[in-house]
Amino acid sequence: MLSPSLAQEIAGDTSAVIGFNVLITDAEGVVIGSGDSSRVGTFHEASVEVIRTKEPATHTAAQAQRLRGVRPGVTLPLVAGGQAVGTVGITGTPAQVRRFGLLVKRQTEILLRESVMLRSRLLAERAAEKLLADIASYDPQVIEGETLAFRAAELGFDLRLRRVAVAFEVTAPETAARRQGAPHRDMALARSELLRTVREVFADPQDIVASTAPGWIGVLHRLPSRRPADSLTADCRRVIDAVAAQDGLTARAGIGEPAASVAALHDSYQDACEALRLGSRRPDGSPIHPIAELRVHQLLAAVSQPVRRRLLDVTTARLRTQPDWPALRDTITAWCESGFNLVRASAALHIHRNTVVYRMNKIEELTGRSLRDHRTTMALYLACLADRLGGGAGAGTGRSPAARSTTSTTATSRDHLPLRNDQQQRPESRSGR
Question: Starting at the edge strand that comes first in sequence, how are the strands of the sheet with 73-80 ordered?
C-alpha cells in the first residue's frame, strides 16, 4: 500500500525537518524509505514484532546490537484500515526521539491514506473511462450487452436505469492576449479540474462521468423520474458557466435521447457527439445542442454531398446569387422553425415583421414559387440546412453571428422601405396559419 517512492520522499523530508533519521519499512520489515539511503533495501528485524503486535517498541544501544539492521531509537506501526502495513522508525536515544514518534507516525499515516485514496480515485476514473469507451464503441457482434452491464454493476452502476448521454467539448479560444504570447491553456493539464467541475453538477452516484480525450468529457446521466424536463439543460448550463470562469475556457454540450439499455446508451452517446458537431453550424449561437432539435440536420448530414448540392442548385440557384443570401436563408429557416407564423419568425430574427414580409416577397419573386405552399417551403428549408452543412459552393462559411448580422444589415438596407398595399395584407394571411 505504501510505494517505495512515496516512502523515500516521506522519510527524506521528515528526517531533514526533525534532525533525526527516519526509516520506513513495508509489511515484511524491509526498509523502503530512509533519510540514510544506504539502509534502503535492508532488513529491519525489530519491525517484524511491531507489525505483529501493532504496538510501538523502543531499543537502547545494547538491545539494538542483538537485532539485525536495527539502531537505537523507536519503532511504531503504520496502521491503515485496521491492518499494520509497515513501520516507521526514528534513530536516536529513545528519550530524545520518543517525543517525535507519534507525530511522525500520524503524519505518515495521513499521507498513506491520501495516497491510497488518490490511487483508488485514479483506478475508478480509469474504469469509468474504459466503460464509457466500450459503450461508445459498442458492437453486439463483438461483445454482449450483458457483459458490459455486468462490468458496470461491479463498479456500482446499474445500466438498466433510465439515462441520457451528454457530451461536453471544452476549448481554449485564441484571444488577442494569447496571440501576443500569453500561455495557451493545455486541455490535458486541465483534465482533473474539468472532471471535478462536471462531477459537482452531475453528482448522482449513478452518473457515469469520464474524460474521453483532452477537452472532451462524457456523461451518462441518470434521469430521475420526477425532475422537470428542462433540468438537464439547466445542469448543462451550470457546467458551461463554471467552465467559462476557468481562464476563459468555453464549453458546449450535446445531449442524446433517453436510454435504458447498453445498445440504446450507445446510440444516445453517438447522438450527443453528433449534436455537438451539427450544433456548431446553427446560427443561434447556443452552446447546448439537444439531438432532438437536430434530427433533420442529422438526416441531411447522412446524405451524400452531391445530393445536397443538387438540392441547393435546383431550389436556391437564384437566391444564392443575391448579396443578401445569408439573410434570405435565415428568413426561410426562421419561417419554417416558427411554425409558418409571421410574428414568431420576426421575433426569432429580431427584426420587424414588415422586414420579414419584404424578404419573403423577394424569395417568392426569385424562386417563382409561393411560400404558402408548405411543400415548396420545406424544400427550401432543407436546402438552407444543406447550405449550412456545406452542401454547395460558398456554403458553410463559418462566419460569426456578428458577421452574419453585419452582412444581413448591409445587404438588406432596402428591407425597411414602406410596403405596398398588397404586401401589407399578405402577412395577416400567413400569421393566421
Answer: 31-34, 22-25, 83-91, 73-80, 57-59
For 53-84, the pLDDT digits (tens) are 999 999 999 999 999 999 999 999 998 878 88
Tens digit of each residue's pLDDT (9 = 90 or more) over 298-349: 888 888 888 888 988 888 989 999 999 999 999 998 888 888 888 999 998 9
pLDDT, residue 234, reads 93
Q: Say if residues 336 and 381 touch (Cβ distance below 8 Å).
A: yes
- What are the structural domains of the chain? 4-120 (3.30.450.40), 137-291 (3.30.70.270), 303-431 (1.10.10)
Using CA atoms, how far residue 102 sits from 17, 36, 115, in Å, is 15, 21, 20
| Closest C-alpha among 218, 214, 123, 207 to residue 163 | 207
Strands, E assignment, 239-393: 250-259, 288-290
Ramachandran angles phi, psi of 323, nearest 5°: -65, -25
CA distance 316 to 326: 12
Supply the pLDDT for residue 312.
87
